[in-house]
Amino acid sequence: MTFQNAALVAVDWGTTNLRAAVLDEAGSVLDKRASDKGMGQLVPDEFEPVLVDLIWDLLSDGAVLPVICSGMVGARQGWQEAPYVSAPCKAAGMEQAMQVATSDPRLSVWILPGVSQAKPADVMRGEETQIAGFLSKFPKFDGVLCLPGTHTKWVRISAEEIVSFQTFMTGEMFSLLSTQSVLRHSVGADAMDIATFNEAVSDAMSRPQAVASKLFSIRAETLLADIPEEVARGRLSGYLLGLELSASRPYWLGMDVALIGDPALCGLYKDALEAQGCPSRVHDASDLTVAGQWAAYQSIKDTP
Amino acid sequence: MTFQNAALVAVDWGTTNLRAAVLDEAGSVLDKRASDKGMGQLVPDEFEPVLVDLIWDLLSDGAVLPVICSGMVGARQGWQEAPYVSAPCKAAGMEQAMQVATSDPRLSVWILPGVSQAKPADVMRGEETQIAGFLSKFPKFDGVLCLPGTHTKWVRISAEEIVSFQTFMTGEMFSLLSTQSVLRHSVGADAMDIATFNEAVSDAMSRPQAVASKLFSIRAETLLADIPEEVARGRLSGYLLGLELSASRPYWLGMDVALIGDPALCGLYKDALEAQGCPSRVHDASDLTVAGQWAAYQSIKDTP
């Protein structure tokens, strides 16, 4: 299969892997490719060969193929640093994209910058491209975006700009506590009791500091009362999310909230917000990064 | 060197290692031994050989050497389960010690039980023996014991009994976040800025829920403002301890607090409590477990 009409390669290059989409001149996806060569295992010189390896069949002599990258590839330890743009700012910071010098003349590589915030100190790298994609579909959106994940982002959007944002390590804490701590013996691996989860969320919201003591009680209840793993898991997840919702209240209270990310995880956020009287909508996140890269390309390709 | 006057072997048998003290008839320590054969790596049949291996030179035909064990050796997955005694109760639950059948007739092995609490659900296994040791030295103590560690215990003591207690996973969370999470790139390995630590404690105590968002800001400040590792470490430690002190307030507020454990860690707790107007004393914890096992032995040896 050949892709003679490939107009752009959009690369989401994270710490552990990369995903590339091949787009035609209209922004339609012709093909998708992936590799496990994340930036975490590469030194600067190794990025170009990895990229060429992934898209060699799209390159032809005498032609130049544009490649837009976003994510950790632009971090200080990445291919080339694309310094953060400071919020408030346009979502993908397209004007500040960095062009990377390549030894292969058939490539024209750009890296999109992340977004920073001075106070409270915060950073994002990758999410801003999803946000750009979301705003390319809903340019009039005025409200709050929540991107649940390892490091969940709450983002205030107005007039197509990222006004402010805040990051929560809830996902990473859940992962560490459920797989590495003493609680791993209690929470099991999969199912979660949703009623328990919702109860734990409101428990944590009414007395956030108590989360510090309630965590070990999950283990104790397994030992003393043999509570089911799905109950233990619901409690752990609910306590941590309740703590996050308690701290992020200024973001969601009385706001129009859009959730972007893994549907199951977004569903938990939606349930928890609903119990607090905050309606929200879950958006399909699957192609938002590509949409954001495409939107960035639209502006960059006209730059001299 | 021989120990013909050995009267008791006191074994603190935890998950990852065991420490044995050889005592004479007056309770003085004649010798100390250790092994890395913790209960976590042993099946029930393997405990006796490990013990014999450690004290073979103390055993003589025709004589029976008493051995008192405490710690995880008495858990369900240990040598033999010594079921929890339910608080309120005497510290080491000496009356409920379990005698273990051994194939070597020169041994008389007892396992001390842990202590449980039904509501809020909580358990301890090992700390109750330190508490017994503390109470054998300060039988009139009426107040609160705090045993900082991986799982810090706050324990209300009155009339030589454990009245109630609460466990916090602060130590384990600090360890996971500082070595396994994204914060490991920020906090370094050793030194901690104490002024930052104290500030973070009071920050967390005045707005406990904000800890959920302040954690990632440590990482962001490293990236944006290049804050020193000891400042980042002070902040992480302070936020987590502030969250614990906020939740454990009913334990320490207006109480006589005695800290037992690693002196450096106890020092951090002491500083943080002092800033909240709560004076406390740090006690040498090094021989409390042995003292508690000795106290238990005093009662058991008279049992028919």
Automatic annotation (TrEMBL), chains A, B:
InterPro entries: DGOK, DGOK_C, DGOK_N. It comes from the Bacteria. This is 2-dehydro-3-deoxygalactonokinase. It comes from Cognatishimia coralii.
